[in-house]
Each structure stands twice: as C-alpha cells, then as structure tokens.
Amino acid sequence: MSDKTTIDTSKAGDQPPSEEVPPPAVAAVDPRLLVREQGLKGYVTEFQRRLKGGELGSLPVIVALIVIWAIFQSKDSLFLSSTNMVNISYFVAGTGMLAIGLVFVLLLGEIDLSVASVSGLISALFAVFTTTHGMNMWLAFLLAVLIGIGIGAVHGIFFAKVGVPAFVVTLAGFLGWNGLMLWVLGDTGSLSIADKGPMHLLGQTSFFMDQDIAGAYILATVGVAALLIGSFVEQGRRRKAGVPFRPTSEIVARAVLLAIVGYVVAFVLNKTAGVPNALVVFLVALIICDFVLRRTTFGRKVFALGGSIEASRRAGINVDLVRIAVFAIAGGFAALGGLFLAAQTQTATLQAGSGNTLMLAIAAAVIGGTSLFGGRGRVWSALLGGLVIQSITTGLDLLNMNTSIQYMITGGVLLAAVVVDSVSRRTQRTSGRA
Q1: Which residue stretches belong to region Disordered (predicted)?
Q2: Is residue 123 assigned to a domain?
Q3: Which among 102, 50, 31 is positioned nearest to 377, based on CA atoms?
Q4: Does residue 95 contact residue 310 with C-beta atoms inside 8 Å?
C-alpha cells in the first residue's frame, strides 16, 4: 500500500505546475443594443445619461420655444392664431437661408461676417439683371446664386490658401461687398423687382398648391412617408451588415410623432392660407443639407475639421479644399437668403443686408444648437433658432414694443445659448465624453 502511494506521489510530482487559465473574452456590446433591449425604460435611462453627460441636443431650444410661445400667448391671444403662425413660417425662411450657410462655417469652428452684405449685393445684382437689362428671371436667379458661391469661394481661398484669418477675410467682405452694393444701386438707392418667376414663387402671396387646403396635408404625408421609407431602408442595410439598427417599433413611434406634429401644423396653417412656398423651399434645403452633412463623406470631413484640424490632415483629408467648399456653400446660401428677403418686398434697397440681418442669422444658427467652438451642430439649427428669433420679433410687434426691446431680448437669448453650449462642453469633458 505504501509502495503504491509512493508511486502515485512521484507521478504527481513529475507533472508541470498548473497554469491559471484566462477567462474567455467577453464580446463588447454596443450600448445602443442594451438601450433598445430594455424598451421604454432603456430610453429613459439613456436620456438621463445624456443629460448628466452634457449631451443636450435640441432640448434647450425646444423648451425655450415653448416658453416663448406660452408667454406671448398669455399676453396676446392672437399670437398662436393661424394668421400669425403663417407670418412666422414665412418670414423665418429668409434669415434661415443665411443661417444654413453659417451652420457649415460654424461646424469648422470659424465665422463668416460677410453673409448679410453678400445677400444685399446679390439682391441688387438680381434687380439690375432683370429690371435694367431685361434678363430672364430664372436665368438671373441662377446667375445670382452662382455669383454668391463664387464670392464665398474667394473668401475660402484667402482663408485656406493665403492664411488670412476667416474673421478678417469676411469682415473685409462685409465692408467691401456692402460698398459694391451701394455702387450697383447708384443714386436711386432702390430698384423694383417684378412679381413673377422666382420672385412670385417666394413672395408673400404664394402658397403651396395655390392655397389648396390639401397642400399642407400632402406635405405632412410626404414627410412621414419619407421618414418611414428612409428608416426602413437604413434598418435593412444595417441588419444586413450585422450592426445595430432601429427596431420597427421605434421607427413607427417616430413616424407617429412626426405625423402628429405635421398634421397639427397643417391644420393651423390651413385655417388662413396654407403653407408659404418660401417655407417649402427652405425645408427642402434643410433636408438636402442634413443629408449632405450626415450621410456623405464631405459631411464627415466637415465635422472632422471642426473636431481637430491636425488630426484631419493626418487622416488624409484635403483641409484647404474642404474649407474653400464650406465658404462657397455659405456664399451660395447668402445669395439665396438675399433673394428670399428681396422677394418679401419685391425691391432691392440700400437697407438690404444691413441693420441686424447678420446678427440675426448668426443668432439663429447658434440659438438653434450649433456650437461656436466647431464640430457640433445640425442644419436644423437654422430652423429652430430662426423660429425662436422670429417668434420674439412677431410677439413684440403684436405687443407694440420698441425695437430696442427686441434687440435686448434676442441678445439675452443668444448669450444664454452660448452659455448652455459652454457648460455642456465642460460637462462632457468632465464626464470623459468630449
């Protein structure tokens, strides 16, 4: 018995010491999958996490818009009337076009101070082309926009190739293009623009489907259908690639929410005249630009430059080309904004692009949620911020308040938006998300 024990012990001693077996690797799980698996509770938890991390998105401006509407409605019951909502939806388009171009520039962390002067110059050139020289309205419209794009590209070249700071280049443009506008208009100081062609399309008396009550509901239906089709196409593409995708229940919920908002807006606007054509064109521009920024390589390059220029350069991005393209886009939308504003009065005047036009355009982009520090924002900021500013303007007009009050309130709202952005970025850095 002892011999057997000795033999067994010796065999055990001959074995190499056992090594600790590492635990099997745990596959990383996309947090979006966990959120969606938990249903409504998961989305609530994710929303709370975003708030604590400073990822506020469009929430502050939406809350501000609701508060502004509630205050003015309590002061004057006509504020939320159909007529007033039609006015707001119409006049938001001109400044909103300027703001779209500024969103692109702000995403780079830069600024364009020339957009208002460019818009005034373009309206003057358009008036000269059509009124003085009898050019076809649509051809003049296209030529005017191309000139705006060219002016923006010139700013971009000085900034990207020569190295002049964007602030200085566009400040020079602010002065220079305004002077050229004064020279173009000459001693008369104003030129009338015929109410036809594109100017009639964007005018105050022009509505989608010619005031047909079905027009607004058709737009709402198209918007919901586009959301459903786009979401299901993306769901199928992501499912096929084996990456996280939105569940069908979430897609349906988003479509239902959009339908509620869309049909309520359609109902309100239809009580007076319907949806202004200017607003329709503005919304189409927003959709196209949103697609460009979120779904194309160019859009990703713009966000990359706003995050870090040096990292973008090392990643092989042509920094100069993207910068020039962005300023060209800003110039093009400045031209469109100038034509929208000219269509409101059917004239090109010395006051075009002057006054607070530039400040309101910048404020619309920033108040809507685009960061002044670059790398964060969406073109829908132009709509949200524009609604805030136009609501303040219209509300104060209803209350017969002085313009000085409007300036002070708009300035306060702009400061609040920048403070929220700064605090949000600081919170994200603290939580390790910046």
Answers
A1: 1-24
A2: yes
A3: 102
A4: no
Query: What gap in Å lies between CA 179 and CA 117, rounded to an integer?
Result: 9
- 144 — phi, psi (to 5°)? -65, -40
Kindly report the CATH number assigned to the domain that includes residue 388: 1.10.3470
pLDDT value at 58 more than 50: yes
Residue 5 lies in a domain: no
Q: What is the pLDDT of residues 266-295, one digit of tens each?
A: 898 888 888 899 999 999 999 999 999 988
Please give the residue range of the domain that contains residue 65. 60-206+276-416
In degrees, rounded to 5, the angle at the alpha carbon of residue 93 between the alpha carbons of residues 99 and 372 is 15
Is residue 35 scored above 70 in pLDDT? no
Q: What is the DSSP string of 25-60?
A: PPPP--HHHHHHHTTHHHHHHHHHHHHHTT--TTHH
- 175/111 Cα distance (integer angstroms): 15
Q: Is residue 104 a part of any domain in this protein? A: yes
Contacts of 380 (CB under 8 A, 6+ apart): 58, 286, 290, 368
pTM of the prediction? 0.84
Please state, in angstroms and rounded to a whole number, the distance separating the CA atoms of residues 5 and 2. Answer: 5
Helix (H, G, I), strand (E, B) or coil at 348: strand
* Distance between CA atoms of residues 221 and 223, nearest Å: 5
Instruction: Provide the Cα torsion 290, 295, 300, 301; round to 10°.
Output: -90
CA–CA separation, 287 vs 340, rounded Å? 18
Number of H helices, E strands in the chain: 18, 2
Whole-angstrom distance, CA of residue 373 vs CA of residue 307 = 9
Residues near 346 by beta carbon (within 8 Å), at least 6 away in sequence: 192, 193, 194, 195, 199, 203
In the numeric block, the tokens 């006051």 are attached to 351
CB 301 within 8 A of CB 317: yes
Backbone phi, psi, residue 350, to 5°: -65, -20
Q: How do strand 347-349 and strand 190-192 relate by DSSP bridges?
A: antiparallel
